[in-house]
Structures are given as structure tokens and as C-alpha cells.
Amino acid sequence: MATCIRLCLQIMSLFLFCTVCNSDISCRNEAGEPVDWFIIYKLPKYKIGEVSSGVEYMYLDSSVGSWQMSKFMINTSQGAMANTLNQLYMGKVYKSNSSVYALYNDGPPVLDYIKGYGHTKGVLLFDHSQGFWLSHSIPHFPSFPERGYVYPSSGKVNGQTALCTTYNYAQFSHIVNQLVYIYPRFYNCSVPASFLGDLPQLAQLCEGSKPQLVADKRVEELFSIGGEKFVSFVKSEHFVDDIYTGWVAQVLHADLLVESWQRQGHDLPSNCSLPKHTMNIKRIRLPGSVLFQSLNDHSKWCVSRAYEDQVTCLGDLNRERAQVWRGGGLVCSFHPLIYKAFRQVVDWYIGC
């Protein structure tokens, strides 16, 4: 009898331990399980020779190994994006004082567009233990917490990308230092009193204040909770140059192939004027013969042209004239799986 009781208690303890682990704030995969990082590539509505729903997406994390077409739609309450954000919405975290959340977008949902903010979009959600930073390219997203998970109809037309990474608490002070340079438009956020000592600048940004900068750009190494290194490059509006050509390619010593939304008459041409070159991608071919042009893709990412460099960056800025004067950034990875996934989908680019 005693042996049975001890066994039952051990099983209960294991169950409670797993429940607590699974309740930690983190990026969530397609099944709702915690992951170190994931990337989503939302497909455009208008592909070459095809018109689709505009809500299909491909999913990538370290466990799947390559792009996988999701069985979910991005505008439903299932899948990696919804699973991750529902920690804010369904958990009612936004009503508690035990965690920080911050939603930012230069084109926020419902509210009018205001000039002066960085061209950047994302979400922070974390407590004193850990949380996630989700950066993405989707205007009018995500919705206000009290509305629950809503994907905007405007986000169906073009291709979009999102990078979610799970970090421990100590990393978020470094992330906030980067966001200061971008000057995001925080349209909904909460920084409870217990976090103010560590994150005073985040509270300032949430209030709409603009902290003083000591330079016009900044680079920071970040380490995910699983130990994966990411490098964040951010520039303010005072760094008047194309972030890809004028800075990132030169620092990383790599020729870059760049995919970004390039409206005709506003785009910057491929540039080989500096030691390391930047060339515009014009067509993407994802697995399953998904083929589309850059003008239908609102995502912003780049890869090194040379396979040995293994550089992949996702971020905020287009190679567009007006955005030379905008704040924004890139998060770069040297993970071979991420590099292979993005490098293989480059179907056509314009050299110099």
C-alpha cells in the first residue's frame, strides 16, 4: 500500500513539474509546445499563375528541419502564431502585474498612422523568468489584447514573415536597448512596477517618450533560452543609409541577397559600390512549387550569396528610398538550418 502511495505521489509530482514547464511564456510551435525559435513565411494571395486564400503559411523550427506547409491558416486560433499570442490573449496575462507585454507597429490596428516612428513591428511578452520577442512584417497586427487573436484582412494580400525567439529575462534589457534606437510605436503595453527598475526605457517608450541616443546605430548579440546566438542590428533615423548595403553587409563581410517589398519608383537598385554588395531578390520559389514575385511580398529578409557565410537576417526595413531615413533593424542568425531554408528559395535576383 505504501509503495502504491509513493508511486502515485511521484507521478503527481512529475505531472505538476511538466505542467509548470509547459506554462512558461515562450514561442509555441504548431502543436502549442514551447520552442526555442520559429519562423513563419505567410504566402501571398497572388502567386505566379495562381490566386490563393492569402492565409496559408509555411513553418520552420529546429525540429522540423525545413519549410513545412502548415495545416492551419494564419487567421485562425490554431497554429504557431496564434498559440504564441494566445498566451497573452487567452491567459489574460494583460490583466496581471506579473508580466510585461508590449505591442508595437508603425501601422497599428484601428489607430491612425502617425509619422515619426520607426518602421518596425513586433511583440514582447515576458515575466521575471522568460518570454518571447516576436518580430514580424504584418501591418495592423496583432490585435488589442481584449479583442483576442485577430488576423487583419489587409494582411492577406502580400507575403509576410515573422521570427519568434524565446529568451530568458536577462536578455530583455538588451532587447529594449535595441528598441530605443528603432523608436517603435507602442500602441498597447504594460510595464508593472516590479519591472521598472530593470526596464525604465521600456516604460518611457510605452509612454511615447523618446530616450536620448548615444549613437545613430547599435549592434547587440542575443542568446535564446536554448543558447542559439542572434545578432540584432538597429539604426535610428539619424543613420541615413540603406541598412543592408551601408552597414550590415559590410560588418558581416558578406554579399547579401535581399528580399523586401519594393514598390516601383521607390525601390533602391542592387548596389555594388562598397566592398560587400547588396542585390535585390526578384522572385521566390518555396517548396511545393510556390512561386511569387517580390512586388507581392511584404517580408523583409536577406541571406548571404556565398554558402560558406551562412548569414540570414529578418527584420523591418525595405530597400526603399524613404526608409533610408527611418529607424528599423534586422535580427541575424548563423544557424545552418535557417540559412539553407532561405537560401534555397531564392529563385532569381538582380546582380550589379
Pick out its properties.
deoxyribonuclease II activity; nine-stranded mixed β-sheet; signal; 21 strands; hydrolase; 6 helices; 352 residues; DNase_II
Short description:
The protein is built from six helices and 21 strands.
Molecular structure report:
The chain is of the alpha+beta class and 352 residues long. The chain has one domain (25-350). The chain is 20% helix and 30% strand. It contains six helices and 21 strands. It has helices spanning 2-23, 80-89, 171-182, 200-206, 243-252, 336-343; strands at residues 27-28, 34-35, 37-42, 46-47, 50-51, 57-60, 68-69, 99-105, 121-127, 130-136, 160-168, 186-190, 217-223, 229-235, 256-259, 278-286, 290-293, 301-304, 312-315, 328-333, 346-350. The strands form four sheets. Strands 13, 14, 15, 16, 17, 18, 19, 20 and 21 form a nine-stranded mixed beta sheet that branches. The protein is globular, with a radius of gyration of 20 Å.
